[in-house]
Amino acid sequence: MEMITNVTEYEAIAKEKLPKMVYDYYASGAEDQWTLEENRNAFARILFRPRILVDVSRIDLTATILGFKVSMPIMIAPTAMQKMAHPEGEFATARAASAAGTIMTLSSWATSSVEEVASTGPGIRFFQLYVFKDRNVVAQLVRRAERAGFKAIALTVDTPILGRREADIKNRFTLPPHLILKNFEGLDLGKLDKTSDSGLASYVAGQIDRSLNWKDISWLQTITSLPILVKGVLTAEDTRIALKAGAAGIIVSNHGARQLDYVPATISALEEQLSLEEVEVALHDYLVCKSNSLLKRLRLPKARRSFNMKFDKASSVGEDIVARGRVSTHDNIRGRRRSKSSRQRVVALSAIEAEYIAMTEVVKEAYEYGVVKAAEGRIPVFLDGGVRRGTDVFKALALGAAGVFIGRPVLFSLAADGEAGVRKVLQMLRDEFELTMALTGCRSLKEISRDHVITEWDRPRIAPKL
């Protein structure tokens, strides 16, 4: 274990140590597993714009999450049945999170109860909630978590039924006989029945409430004072509804790519935009509707008439551009002795250029959306899915996330080396994140900005003011 240098190396060790059924349950995604790969690939398509000659002798990684100060914006996501990975399961994970000064989220389907995890010692912990058909069971569980000192509820909203996980079907997945879903011990809900396909899929079909809807957030607020995070949001539309429903935060999640395949990677959902090419198409359509076509404008000598007041305003911009010698698209005219009509033509063309640029900004703004923008800074947005490097953490924060949650890295390191493995994963991610901050010129989380990254939908960027 001493030679492990990055988080992903734990997976190969876990694969060797775990029974095939268990490894496949942890590692696989839904159906074709396109989203499983895309969760990682999308991070790789985001590049950095580092700033240099910044004094980075001191770097502060601390974050405040729902009012709680943590050592870094890297937290542990809820993952079920951790004692399949290691005998100490959630106990080991809780101790590792506490030692790292960060948050652990306990799954409803944990193999350790909320009371048992609380007994491991101090720590900031959230509780992930599935809503069962029997609402009395849900109410009891939420109150137990609150009494045990958990600080927030992460309400999973993307699982009315279980996604088609073909590895689990082939393996006829079920919980090993010596383990139970500990939070439901004594309620006849702690075991998964053996079936001809996935025991978990059958369990979800029989127990989870498909009628769950936005009104149930209000219901939850009547039974607990804990803040409620909505986990499983991927769109701006649902983010706006979550705001109105009183959510305390959003967790952008595709359930580790285990529910609906071919949804976007979570990092892509933070900030969705049309590509520059798509903006140009939209702009062209707008101009066609407005005055036949841009090309027609450029060709007509009576262009002023169609531009009216807007042309006059843009024309002044064009004149300024000409005065500074910046009409790059008209080099064939520059440097020559210009007639009055030629100069007027250049000014007219420059004015059209200026209006085109201005309209591009308007159209791009109109077509810009995503979870972060929809949240309007009123509630924090978190992310899980695909985080394997400190660089991934930085990219998520640069695109507006307040923090990230990690799942599979915890499971694989737990399987490989117990509590020590989880501690090492958290430390490696912390070290890599700190390194990324230093090399991009950021000394605190508030200095990480959108200007530090380039996405595939970005147009050539204008340098920000220092």
UniProtKB/TrEMBL annotation:
Key words, A-Z: Flavoprotein, FMN, Glycolate pathway, Oxidoreductase, Peroxisome
GO biological process: oxidative photosynthetic carbon pathway
Cofactor(s) for this UniProt protein: FMN
First and last residue of the signal peptide: none
Pathway(s) the chain acts in: Photosynthesis; photorespiration; glycine from 2-phosphoglycolate: step 2/3
Cell location: Peroxisome
GO CC list: peroxisome
Name the UniProt record assigns to this protein: (S)-2-hydroxy-acid oxidase
Source species: Vigna mungo (Black gram)
